[in-house]
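Anyone opening a protein record will find just a pair of labelled lines. A complete record is shown below as an example:
=====
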Amino acid sequence: MSKYDVTVIGSGPGGYVAAIRCAQLGMKTALIEKYDTLGGTCLNVGCIPSKALLDSSEHYHNAEKKFQTHGINLKDLKVDFKQMIQRKSDVVKQTCDGIDFLMKKNKIDVHHGMGSFIDKNTIEIKPAKGKSTKIETDKVIIATGSKPSSLPGIEIDKKRIITSTEALALKEVPKTMIVIGGGVIGLELGSVYARLGTKVQVIEYADAIIPTMDQDLGKELKRNLKKELGFEFFMSHKVTGAKATTKLVTVTAEDKNGKKAEFKADYCLVSVGRRPYTESLNPDKAAVKVDDRGRIEVSDHLETSTPGIYAIGDVVKGAMLAHKAEEEGVYVAELMAGQKPHLNYLLIPGVVYTWPEVAAVGYTEQQLKEQGVEYKSGSFPFKASGRARASMDTDGLIKVLADKKTDEILGVHMIGPRAADMIAEAVVAMEYKATAEDIARICHAHPTFTESFKEAALAATDNRALHI
């Protein structure tokens, strides 16, 4: 039986990064993955393929709607959807192959099959075909991720009533699509198909889209998706059922007053969140506790109820984000090695890859009000940005929230071009407890989108914005 210092169960961003860091720190490391390819949900059926399709569909949308304004005239513009899906698959393969290379480079033993505990130091690996094997390990990192959730009364048939996984591999561009859930996944994949000509209807239980983010971002994104892509939104609607035929889906819902509504479309995308995946893990055999929501219970140091067994990523509490899982993976590896790593959950940014992009870090304005924190706010619209006008990306804004007394930045919220990249400057600033004045005093190149962050910081500092 093979013996390891540490075994990582799950090869998503959290798992494979944890394995690499453990190997870098001198531990003999094993990685167990249920599927044939490494990378987990993110690389195979999540972040990477969805961004590939978002980019392809955005190119088409711009060619159809904006190129003529730029002086570029096209004839016979059309979507080759089969090629679009093929390119997505190629991107996924290249990325997953890259993880294979990193495992070999770092001398990590990869085992394919379902990993489950026999006891806290023994793990059984059941491959899809062939005999099971067992390995011994001193420590374990559980990184088994999550899978899509559903709602009562909805049976996901993976044909007409689908999850994000199936939405990434449709054979056709639908004429109509219902999206249940106004969160990140539904809006991103809804955007892909709306750009290609699909009529998209979003049914959301809450009274706002992306409800966990600052309200100003949700309002601006909703306005833009309606204006640019023709989204229809049905807010404060509770879905009561969904039935599919071979060619059609009928969704029933009712609003907050109990008024019933019926929706019909070619496909229904169920995007109401994700739930931890621990099936066949047998955590009880290692005395690992699981809460009532299926999450593995961990300490502040991500250690489970059994010493030496840790859990990270979607399978524990907190936002289900690939970069959160990566940070946790590095944190646990370094903790095992006797180091004192740092992890600040407040400063893990959230991003929505629609266009305009949405990104945020720190406290929302609503959270500061609830906590009774005295703050000041400054915002700057992209319509006042020269760089944004040059690229025809004038929708959106950047908002900076700072402590009223100390001027320390408490939150930064963006919706606009390249917000997903720009938010990194805000994260760096907040990690070093920068003030709005600090950002206002830093020279930003002109013309750039990031100047808008400086202008928002100026606006938060005695209302000193220069270009509005």
Q: What stands out?
A: The mean pLDDT is 97. Residues 81-105 form the longest helix (25 residues). The domain at 2-148+275-345 is CATH 3.50.50.60 (FAD/NAD(P)-binding domain). The chain has three domains: 2-148+275-345, 161-272, 356-460.
